[in-house]
Amino acid sequence: MTSASANQVVRLHETGGPEVLRVETLPIPQPGKGEVLLRQVALGVNFIDTYFRSGLYKFPTLPAIPGMEGAGIVEAVGEGVTTLKPGARVAYAGVLGAYAHYRTIAADRLVELPESISFELAAGIMLRGLSAHMLLRQVYNVKKGDPILVYAAAGGVGQLMCQWGKHLGAHVIGVTSSPEKAEIIRACGAADVIVGTDELPEQVRRITNGAMVPVVYDSVGRDTFETSLNCLAPRGLMVSYGNASGPVENFNVAALSAHGSLYLTRPTLMTYIAKPQDLQASAKALFEVLAKGILKPTIGQHFALAEAAQAHEALEGRKTTGSTILTL
Ligand code: NDP
Predict the structure, then answer these.
(1) Which of 8, 153, 188, 226 is deepest in the core (most CB within 10 A)?
(2) What is the 8-class DSSP label of residue 251?
(3) Phi-psi bin for 246: left (phi > 0), alpha (psi -120 to 50), beta?
(4) Å from CA of 202 to ligand 1 middle
(5) What is the pLDDT of residues 278-327, one digit of tens each?
(6) Is the ipTM, as predicted for this complex, more than 0.95?
(7) 24-58 tens-digit pLDDT
């Protein structure tokens, strides 16, 4: 068991703007049955953290510790844990309570890290990389030659989608808000980049010689949903997987028929890694493409734990590229 007694965390007592994130000191928790105590080294800051903080997504109870991704060292194991020992290097994605030096977590939510993957890299790619795997291999199985439309392509998930999509043989069309980000997206392997969304369907029509795309990966939500439907080929798949501009509301199902017998899915990574064996299989696939150099993740921003509010401001202000992490 650790000799430290205090646990610095970032917690919120009510939802709201970044200012609700408070640095607090709590006791170090004890691992229960099936759990381990983790000494965290690096944490991921993901856009989903801002949805929980703002109240768009609900914490089970308040006060709550936000954050869903981290990497560190197993400090102690609880009753019944046989798969991990103290000292194991591990990481996780999709489990609330990350913004802390120490946390407890169910052992079957952890993935052991290969020596080649540093804690910082793990904190930058677990949630985003597993999401890219889900989107490109499971939600829609990208095939050689597919033109695919990827929003926020310079972001954490977006850069990995460009690199992995190119490797799968897709013609990646990235969408972003600035020429500077467009350069980053090209360097990640996108064949085309569109800056701004005003004439997106027309640009997609030009790039695809009128065919449009079989799949749109839309993480922006409210502002782009209708535009995305206009970019799809008949019987194409609309993947609405985020709400960066706000949630999509009042959706009229008939729009799917009007745009050409479209399919719509609203996936969440949590479903795709809910079973421990699915989590392990997806992590294995992710670590393989990392080891082969197919993914070259960028940690664009490092913050201290106490700077979590600044990290949220940067993410929501569209000022980040690649992954954002907190180092402890
Ligand atoms: P990003 O690094 O991609 O940051 C978000 C980006 O969204 C911004 O940089 C910006 O890029 C773009 N954006 C577009 N409109 C807005 C807006 N109104 N306000 C702020 N940003 C906007 O974040 P992540 O990689 O953490 O996540 C990307 C998306 O994927 C998020 O929407 C997230 O919710 C979603 N996601 C969903 C998962 C799921 O299971 N469904 C799992 C993981 C992520 P630009 O300036 O280039 O437009």
Answers:
(1) 153
(2) -
(3) left
(4) 23
(5) 999 999 999 999 999 999 999 999 999 999 999 999 999 999 999 999 99
(6) yes
(7) 999 999 999 999 999 999 999 999 999 999 999 99
Between CA 312 and CA 20 the distance in angstroms is 11
Alpha carbon distances (Å) from 76 to 54, 81, 88, 230, 328: 33, 10, 10, 53, 19
Task: Write down all domains in the chain, each with its CATH number in brackets.
Answer: 6-126+273-327 (3.90.180.10), 144-266 (3.40.50.720)
Distance 64 CA to ligand 1 centre (A): 23
Length of the chain: 328
Report the residue among 45, 46, 47, 224 best suited for mutation to probe ligand 1: largest number of ligand atoms under 8 A from its CB. Answer: 47
Q: What is the CA(156)–ligand 1 centre distance, in A?
A: 8
Task: Check pocket membership of 217 for ligand 1, CB cut-off 6 A.
Answer: no
Q: Pick from 99, 106, 29, 88: which is nearest to 59 by CA?
A: 99
Are the beta carbons of 259 and 232 closer than 8 angstroms? yes
CA distance 199 to 65: 41
How many alpha carbons lie under 13 Å from residue 66 in its C-beta half-sphere? 33
**Reported pTM:** 0.98
Identify any residues that bridge with 74 across adjacent strands, giving them in sequence order: 38
